[in-house]
Design brief:
Length: about 350
Amino acid sequence: MSTRIIDTANLAEALENELTATEHCGLFVVTDSNVKEMVLPRLASVLQKHKASIISFTAGEENKNLETLSQIWRKLSDNGATRKSLIINLGGGVVTDLGGFAAATFKRGIQFINIPTTVLGAVDAAVGEKTGIDFNGLKNEVGAFALPWAVMISSEPLCTLPQREIKSGFGEIVKTALITSENFYALTLSENILSDNDSLRNVMTMSVAEKQRITDEDPLEKGLRKILNFGHTAGHAFETMMMARGATVSHGEAVANGILVALILSHMLTGMSSGEIYRYRDGILRRHFSPIAFGCKDYEELTRLISHDKKNPSAGDIRFVLLESIGKPLIDIPVTVPDLHTALDIYRDLTGY
């Protein structure tokens, strides 16, 4: 069974139709304090009609933990949730990860619908069957694979987001476009892509559908699903390095810069046209994102972080997802330290650092 992707310009109407058509005994909404204030009122009449119980927690990644999960379980139990109940996870990635894990484990599993309220939440966390919490200081250390009943994609909640949050999610959309098709990628290069709601919702829906297709074929990340790590190997290293410096770099910003490194390596190692490097730099990176500032003295640290990426087969064995061309990804391509350093040199030349 595959998750149904519901693309809508009217979230309240779509939710009403879904709740009317879906058999359930007891409706629960899991959300965080920010979404409860900014987005939940838009759906209040529908949720009241269906007698939904609202379960909210304080917003923030630091609350994606066992304590919050226990609170959700307790409220489900106290309010009579059964295996025939339905949970709606309304929020960003923290909410869909946490609410999905609560649904996957309560009564050994009950149905849930994800309604992501951020671009990143929609295209990254809301699909793919992964749910979980942070534990013992480690991100997503405890979790389960669980399939949402449906994912509802709408640009309505995005009006509550700062532009930087929208751009963060857009980095993941571009990644998915690059690994899937030239036609999809061409849409992301449109100058008004982030200012036109219909265009943004369109590429969000395409990104979600492509990720769903990939994860359906490889639900446990044994092969094909690895292509979703494109841009993330260097991106995670950038994110970690900047975090250690106390600098604020969003996940999508880090991935967008990691993509440039991956494209450089693709030209060096797999024969991808150099023109794609410049098309990406000029059409995506310069237009929407700031480059990561680093120098030669940082190469050792970046190499260490990349070599310890959890996606590598073993510590010190550097592997990247690269492109042969747009829409033709290659997984587990070995990269030597000298080649990596050359790619970082070229990155700095292309971005002015």
